[in-house]
Amino acid sequence: MNLHHLEAFLAVAEELHFGRAAERLHMAQPPLTRAIKQLERDLGAQLFVRTTRSVHLTTAGQALIGPANDVLEGCRVARSAVRSAGRGETGLVRLGFAGPSSHLLVGDLSRLVRQRRPGIELRLRSTTYANEALRSVIDGELDLALVRWSVRPPEIAQRVVAEEHYVLVVPEHHRLAERETVSIAECRDEPFVALPAAPGSIVRETFIRAAYEAGFSPDIVQVASDSWTLMALVGAGVGLSFTLDTAVANVPRDRIRLVRLAEEFTPSYARLAWRRDAVSPALREVLLASEEALPTPEHLVGVEVP
Description:
Layout: H1 3-15, H2 18-24, H3 29-43, E1 48-50, E2 55-57, H4 59-86, E3 90-98, H5 103-116, E4 119-127, H6 130-139, E5 144-147, E6 156-164, E7 166-171, E8 181-182, E9 191-194, H7 202-213, E10 219-223, H8 227-235, E11 241-244, H9 245-249, E12 256-261, E13 268-275, H10 281-293
Parallel strand pairs: 3-4, 3-5, 8-12, 9-10
Antiparallel strand pairs: 1-2, 5-13, 6-13, 7-11, 7-12
Helix pairs in contact: 1-2, 1-3, 1-4, 5-10
């Protein structure tokens, strides 16, 4: 039994005439008759009662109409799904990101993908550090990630979507809270709260290096697993936090103040990263949507950012 046999059966069942059914299927009548006989042999049942004047369905033939339609409709759905996937209209794209600094970017991209390509599922995965998401893209566990890096992996393609700046966050009544700028050296005797030490913790590594260059080893009195907790600890007066302006912008700012740093730190850049050899049509469509949802900052268009 194959699909052509079922199509032939349904045509005869609806027309109750072999000649008209053959015309409908754009075929000669003898091959149609052979197809019906083959289907009857395969099923072990007679499907039609034929006389010189009429054709009627048997009980077995009547029972086959529903399942035959279901099979053919399932095949039509399968063909449509495959064509849609090939055009990037449907599919799965796994997107990784780290921390609140990425949340607005993820939200803007998700909204536009939903509007443009509702058949694409954007599956989100949050990590503590962007380096974890980047490693998952390299390993093929994610298709796309919002990342930051100090060295670009050769197998990764990327586009800058945001420029970020390092800032100091202090309790609202701290002695530095009303300052417009402050240097790292002025904080040598202050306690700090920070994210855990781990490979790829670019913000923490930048902070430690800046403190060493200012002549001191920072006193990290409390480690927290995420930026929300860090800001709560700062608000409670546990310590200061060296972080990114985008991270502070996306968390509650009760009882804290943001102060610009006097040092001219090289900005951090948030990037969309994906494998150079990626061939997914759905990923292609998400990347196209990202160019509108998350455009490269104007002053960085055409600029080679390390």
